[in-house]
Amino acid sequence: MTTNNNVLPSSAIVEVSSPFQQTHFLLLARGPKYVPKCQSYFRFHTIEDIIIREYNRMSAIIIKYLTNNCVSASDERAKVFLISLRNLLTDLYTTKLSSKLFHHSRQEYILTKDAQHKLYLTRQQIILRRTDKSKVFHLGSYDDYEQKASNYMIKTCAYEEVIDGKCPLADNLSSVMDLLDKLLKRKAINVKQWSTMIPNRNKVELGHLYFLPKPHKIGTPLRPIISSINGPTNNVSHFLDHLIRPLFDRVAKQTTFINGIDLVRQLEKYQENGHLLPTTHFVTFDVTDLYTMIPRNGALEALGRFLVKTSIGGKIGNLSIDTILKLARLVLDTNYFVYNNKYYRQIKGGAMGSAFTMTLANVYMLEWEQPLIELQSQQGEIYGRYIDDVFMTSNMSTNVIHDKLDWMNQKDHKHIKITYSVDQKVEFLDVQIENHYGLLKTSVYRKPAAEPYILPYSSDHPRHIHMNIPYEALLQAARLCSDVYTFDKERLNIEIKLLLNGYPPQFLKYHFNRFFRLNQVLQVCTELDAHKYQILHQKLLYLPTRREKKYQRQTTDENDKLVDKEWNRKILMLSHTYESGPSKNFRREFRKLWTKYYVYKGSVVKDVRIMITALNNSSLNDLLVRKKPPASLLTKMEALLSPPSSKIESEQETELKK
Questions:
Q1: Separation of alpha carbons 535 and 541, rounded Å
Q2: How many CB atoms lie within 10 A of CB 417?
Q3: Is 272 helix (H, G, I), strand (E, B) or coil?
Q4: Is 461 left (phi over 0), alpha (psi -120 to 50) or beta?
Q5: Scanning 293, 423, 436, 578, which has the fewest C-beta atoms within 10 Å of its C-beta?
Q6: pLDDT-derived band of residue 565, with 50, 70 and 90 as boundaries?
Q7: What is the Cα–Cα distance from 305 to 321, expressed in whole angstroms?
Q8: How far apart are CA 33 and CA 620, in angstroms?
Q9: What is the Cα–Cα distance from 418 to 283, expressed in whole angstroms?
Q10: How many CA atoms lie within 13 A of 16 on its CB side?
Q11: Could you give the strand order of the β-sheet that contains 383-386, starting from the edge strand earlier in sequence?
Q12: What b/e readout covers 277-293, taking b as 16+ CB neighbours within 10 angstroms?
């Protein structure tokens, strides 16, 4: 493996010869998330098209907001306001860029178009993808990708080609519509649930399979992803996930790690309770190809048992267990996709990328891991899982630990295979954990192959995004690092990464000081005060993250029904496509416009809180990576392969009889 070395912080991982020049590699070094500047000035769309798109999106929201607040959206005031909004957008998008910004943006545009052209000409020789976890681009051999993909399919035996070559979309769509209609007719689901799960006929298409490289592992293996955002069962998959995941989270709350912060909390409590000894070992293991290898019938049976235990009167909300299992089997049995211009069906496990697959895999794993959970609980040890990664503590001898894990490896050896590690210094998620002679030491962990990549300062994102990055990085470090010296080392790493990604020194100085000032611990920065740091560490460690707040709501809400969020009349939420240049002033100018027309005595919307969220232009990943097959393959409606739903219903009836 070779990498394109440069003074930039990271570079594309290159494993194939390519027609790219140094300037192209410098472009790729900016990373998949990088957004080139001022794209509206160089796109094939006319400025008028962009103005119409922005205006139509915002005006529809504004009209709805006014109507819901019993304010006329068709009187003279509203008409003049909307005309003024249109004029504002026209002024912002037609004003010329400064000479310097125009020159820079035009160079980026030309370079990006040239890279697109070279990738198109060599599409049968090289493949560009973002890496699975290291946030950079990977340039690989087309033949190498094909060979690894073929080997993966042979190894897992999870996919079979549709031999007759006919597109199964019509058959899948008919199966979904037929089952949902029958469930509605039998009152097994209500109208709202039916409308939530029904596919959009105007957008429906088959999923497509692609692979992401994992260069942090030997040989750069590939991770399969099935993208089915508009698939026939995508809505059903999301419905089941929203229905069942809160139940699982509640049941498995004590043995699930939400993130690395959650792990550090449990480890520190473990140490406080006197369980961490100089001889304590840490155990980590991961499950190989979990999503692909779980047995379908076994997983559905496990789901049925799980639902029986968590149901009230044999129902989850208003749905019977029988109805939920029928919907679950529908999702699994209609998992068709396109790969290499051929149609395939997944016959084992669930699709990587499907919302319901992770929940189903979690339910199956919950049964599999019960012997370990019971053993750890009896011995007062930690056991926790994050999807397919597990962390445990143990005060048993290494021989006994190995025997237990080897037994677990044989428990369901056809489907669940684990690779484990037992040591006193391990890595799990984003945390490095060490038992230093009975003293717990934790720090931020990065894989050795991880590039020092952070969103470049020059990326065309709103400035508040860049302002939050130093604070969030220091926040994570203070939560995970167990002592002030480890934290200071991580602070230095963060500073170097940010400098290498173009963040100005004065910008970093201000925002680093802001972190310490807001948390009232300037001595940690200036004097490495260990006592002050421990106060900071404990305070931030137990400050819940956004993800934890969401998880907490799910695990404490006893109402299993999906509840619509109450609409807030005091908030007007708009979205606007951000880019450098005149249009970045849209937020300020819109507020002036609203104040002019709707902030007056007696106005019912004068106190509205205006929230304008930023939409981003296309990233380099959007502009350069091509993995979606032609629409003609994804949307072709051919004659049905079988009578509507007959095959699926037959399989479901057989399972119900069992």
A1: 10
A2: 15
A3: helix
A4: beta
A5: 436
A6: low
A7: 10
A8: 6
A9: 12
A10: 21
A11: 383-386, 389-394, 281-287, 418-423
A12: eeebbbbbbbbebbbbb
Query: What is the β-pairing status of strands 383-386 and 389-394?
Result: antiparallel
CA atoms within 13 A on the CB side of 37: 19
| pLDDT at residue 107 is higher than 60 | yes
> Which pLDDT tens digit goes with each residue over 456-480?
999 999 999 999 999 999 999 999 9
Helix ranges, 95-213 (H): 99-121, 142-156, 169-185, 191-197
Euclidean distance between CA atoms 604 and 245, whole angstroms: 40
> How far apart are the C-alpha atoms of 606 and 612, rounded to whole Å?
17
What is the Cα–Cα distance from 490 to 472, expressed in whole angstroms?
A: 13
β-strand partners of 611: 573
Distance of CA 556 to the CA centre of its chain: 24
Show the CA angle centred on residue 294, arms to residues 291 and 298, nearest 5°: 145
Question: 315-316 and 281-287 as β-strands: parallel, antiparallel, unpaired?
Answer: unpaired
Domain boundaries, the chain: 160-253+290-360+629-657, 463-543
pLDDT digits (tens, 9 = 90+) for 441-456: 999 998 766 666 789 9
In angstroms, the CA 426 to CA 284 distance is 7
**pLDDT, position 621:** 94
Q: Residue 471: name the closest of 452, 454, 446, 453 by CA.
A: 454
Is the pLDDT assigned to residue 4 strictly greater than 80? no
